[in-house]
Specification:
The structure holds two protein chains of two kinds. By secondary structure, chain A is mostly helical. Helix content of chain A is 78%, strand content 0%. Chain A is elongated. In chain B, 73% of the residues lie in helices and 0% in strands. About 9% of the residues of chain B have low confidence. Classes of the chains: A mainly alpha, B mainly alpha.
Chain lengths: 221, 173
């Protein structure tokens, strides 16, 4: 069968479909079907929640270091928390703004390239940053909580820390980061790789890059 | 233009062109349920974007193809990339898409969809527009490539199809 013959078959299909009434304009206009944009709703809610959480964490970090300016260790913990909160706020807001700004009526190649770059950024930058920072953020959080307790009883936390504290701190960071990679390995081994890819990183990077390459090839050839 | 007028205009244009949406859904979705989902998704996006449609900038069909293909390709990539091959669009599928029986299944359509299913997302868009009898200029406008590029790609696809048919004939002989 030649391509031109396929055209005839396609036109037959077109005539059949024109007679169908399944896609009612009413349904589209009201957008009442629950399944419409079901994939976007969790994205918007999830990202909004993450941004709100980011504001809370950021405020906590700022209020902590600004009230402990004389103790550099406390300031460092507060700044780390502020940084984590800022990223937790900026990344989802950036994504939501970009998502809203997409004009689906633009040429296919342009929009697909933009969407794929968005996905690549998420899996290449956001996911690893959050995985690593999220894995160690409990350490400054714990120290900040201990500092509050110290403030309450009038004790200087940092002067009473044992000599091996720095070694413990570094070991904790290494273990936490190691656990992030171990968790990633275990999830993939258990056959939940796809879930992990969609949520974090891994094969999604490969897919996003393959899609970008496919677009470049399409344009080039 | 008021909301009511927009609504009426959209409804008229939708009735005239909804076959296109079903065909795009048929090319990009895997199962009958996904096809209906995708067609509704495209329809919803069309309605949302309709307020910004300016007929001085683009023909309605060009605008519609861009939105339909962008939504369909995005969904395909979200669902797992090129793993989402087309199933043959047979009479059963058509019935399920449209909710009404189709009189005569067409073997050519099955072969056509099997062939389209082997193409990547962007080449599927290209061949769909070609089958829709769109001019090279319009295909170029929809996809965002040059008309020369469109012509070259279509020739390549024709050659690929001929090669496939020749191979099938040899195997069958």
């Amino acid at each position: 069968m030649e391509l031109d013959e396929m055209k005839l078959a396609w036109q037959t299909l077109g005539r059949q479909l024109e007679r169908q009434n399944t896609l009612q304009v009413e349904l589209l206009r009201q957008g009442r079907a629950g399944r419409l944009h079901r994939h976007l709703r969790p994205l918007v809610w999830g990202q909004s929640l993450l941004a709100a959480l980011g504001v809370v964490i950021m405020s906590w970090g700022i209020s902590f270091w600004s009230t402990h300016l004389g103790i550099w260790q406390a300031v460092a913990c507060g700044i780390f928390m502020q940084l984590f909160g800022t990223l937790a706020f900026v990344f989802p807001i950036r994504l939501l703004v970009m998502q809203q700004g997409i004009d689906y009526a633009a040429p296919v190649l342009e929009i697909q390239r933009r969407l794929t770059r968005m996905r690549a950024w998420r899996v290449r930058v956001e996911a690893p940053v959050f995985a690593v920072l999220g894995g160690v953020v409990w350490i400054p959080a714990l120290l900040m909580w201990a500092q509050y307790e110290g403030d309450r009883v009038g004790l200087s936390l940092w002067q009473h820390l044992r000599s091996g504290f720095m070694a413990w701190l570094l070991l904790s960071v290494a273990v936490a980061v190691g656990l992030v990679f171990l968790a990633r390995f275990v999830v993939r081994r258990l056959g939940h790789g796809r879930w992990l890819e969609n949520g974090l990183a891994g094969g999604a990077i490969v897919r996003a890059e393959a899609a970008l390459e496919e677009m470049a090839r399409f344009e080039r050839e | 233009m008021g909301g009511k007028a927009d609504q009426q205009r959209f409804e008229t244009l939708w009735r005239e062109h909804r076959g296109i949406v079903l065909k795009v859904a048929g090319v990009y979705a895997r199962s009958a349920e996904e096809r209906l989902d995708l067609a509704q998704e495209i329809g919803a996006q069309l309605w949302r974007s309709f307020a910004a449609f300016d007929e001085r900038k683009a023909k309605f069909s060009t605008w519609l193809y861009r939105i339909a293909l962008n939504v369909a390709i995005s969904q395909l990539r979200r669902a797992g990339g090129e793993a989402g091959r087309c199933e043959p669009l047979d009479a059963w599928h058509l019935e399920t898409i449209a909710g009404e029986p189709v009189a005569e299944p067409d073997e050519r359509l099955t072969a056509l969809h099997a062939f389209i299913g082997e193409l990547d997302a962007l080449n599927r868009a290209l061949i769909l527009l070609y089958l829709e009898d769109r001019s090279y200029a319009e295909i170029a406008e929809v996809l965002g490539i040059s008309a020369t590029n469109v012509a070259t790609k279509i020739n390549r696809i024709k050659q690929k199809l001929r090669g496939r048919m020749a191979a099938a004939a040899t195997t069958g002989a």
